[in-house]
Amino acid sequence: MKKIAIVFIAALTFGIVSCSDFLDVNTDPNNAPTSTPALTLPAAIASSASCFAGYYNILGGFWVEYWTQDNGSNQYKDIDAYNIQQSTLNTTFSEMYSGALNDYKFVREQSKATGDWNLYLMGTVMQAYSFQLMADIYDQIPLDEALQGAGNPNPHYLTGQQVYDTLIARIDDALSKDFSALTNTNPGESDILFGGNISKWKSFANTLKLKIYLRQIYARPAVADAGIKALFSSGASFLADDAAMTQFIDQENKSNPLYEMDQRKLNTKQNIKGSKTFIDFLIDAQDSRIGKLFIPNAKKTFIGLPQGDFGVPTTVIDPATICRARITATEPVYFLSKAESYFLQSEAAARGYGGDDEALYISGISASFDQLDTLDASASLTAPSGPYAYPSSGSLEAKLKAIITQKWIALAGFEGAEAFTERNRTHYPEYSDVTYGDSGYQLGDLVYPIGGVTGTGNFPKRLLFPETERNRNINTPAQVPATTKIWWDQKP
Question: Coil, helix or strand for 336?
Fold first, then answer.
């Protein structure tokens, strides 16, 4: 009974804590007097899940061309067309601050006061994870002055570099605590990611640090190099499990948030269709994961819609022939999957920081098949003659292209925002100057959408600062175009 109660506390967050209920980053909804860190943690994680698996996932999924808007409906047409406004996902931004980030602050402060370093680490890691994703989408965000309510109604924004440095310092502080102290508690099933296993939380923390350092590899190579070397020299462990919320059931307001918002709440389940970019790539490789990511048409075939062909100016493709995204009620929300962890480690190894880059690459592909509960065909795909053969004797750039391409596949459907930011850091998949069928087009390259409004070749790199922030916080930075690079996007 206890397990069921905890699951429902977390899942109900999606029905009770809607983004529209929290419109101000500076709102300070006080926790109930009887709340504790252990009770607040699952609600905070669920709040993060509702945003990251929901609209941020959709945004990234469209922009790395897993998905495209159905040509018979129009729910996400503006996202597909790059028609980004100040109002785009502004309530999701507000929910992150008023919901998840505010709750993680409560967990951190209360557990620190009692010396409960287990919960302190959990709250710190999840808050750092959430802040990083926000910074990678908006470039600058409120951090050290945020979450103070009326105490500071106009928090200043930190630059992305400042955010990253602050997050590393917070994670290191949390990892340095005494986890053998008698003041520690085991939250058990209140920890809806790892069931109270603190070793897995330490691995999550280390893997998050590795991701933060690799994200800076082109912008601050010295900082990234020193940080990664320190991780490996310390013998840090990395995730060999999915950091995932798995407690969803097929009932209203208790299911996977993407399913809840897109499949259960809308008047059609057809909005999210498979992009020709991704579908054709998987078909060419004979990758069986396609059947776990997409629902075939009535003829049991997989046909992708050209990106952005939602009826501008006209379309002659029957919407019923296009495969749609497979979105299920009980699908877990992955914050950092085992597959992603292996690909991060593979990249670090390819760059010379230790480990077997090819073995880790193959482990990442295998983990992706396992995640989708698909017959593991990685052995044939990664064989020397296979489509995903690792270029073990190739250049570093060839290895990076292979690793990031496989990460692109592994993140499909679950971690769209992460796939988008990794695309911008590594420039894989590449942007194409031509489109499908043209001479020079390479399968898997991202094309400019047919209905795009920013001009051919002008791809989005960020979201605009939200309208709600600009109306309420006088310290919101000046707006820049959505096509402006994030600070770490400096690959030559």
Answer: strand
Q: How far is Cα 76 from Cα 289, in angstroms, rounded to an integer?
A: 25
CB atoms within 10 A of CB 269: 16
Domains and CATH numbers, the chain: 1-262+460-492 (1.25.40.390)
d(Cα 363, Cα 376) in Å, to the nearest integer? 11
Residue where the block lists tokens 């020079």? 440
Q: Which neighbouring-strand residues pair with 68?
A: 273
DSSP 8-state code for residue 412: T
What's the predicted TM-score (pTM) here? 0.93
| DSSP-assigned beta bridge partners for residue 431 | 446
> CA-CA distance, 11 to 249, in Å (whole number)?
9
Q: Return all residues near 393 (Cβ < 8 A) that are at least 6 apart.
A: none
Helix/strand/coil for 69: strand
Tokens of 28: 């300070």
The string of DSSP letters for 204-221 reads HHHHHHHHHHHHTTTTSH
CA dihedral 177, 179, 184, 190 (to 10 degrees): 100
Contact indicator for 407, 342 with CB cutoff of 8 Å: no
Q: What is the pLDDT along the chain (492 residues), one digit of tens a residue?
A: 334 334 344 444 433 333 333 223 333 434 444 689 999 999 999 999 999 999 999 999 999 999 999 998 889 999 999 999 999 988 899 889 999 999 999 999 999 999 999 999 999 999 999 999 999 999 999 999 988 877 888 999 999 999 999 999 999 999 999 999 999 999 999 999 999 999 999 999 999 999 999 999 999 999 999 999 999 999 999 999 999 999 999 999 999 999 999 999 988 899 999 999 999 999 999 999 999 999 999 999 999 999 999 887 656 788 899 999 999 999 999 999 999 999 999 999 999 998 999 999 999 999 999 999 877 777 899 999 999 999 999 999 999 999 999 999 999 999 999 999 999 999 999 999 999 999 999 999 999 999 999 999 999 999 999 998 999 999 999 999 999 999 999 999
The closest alpha carbon to 47, from 106, 112, 2, 88, belongs to 106
Sheet with 272-274: list strands edge to edge: 67-69, 272-274, 324-325, 294-295
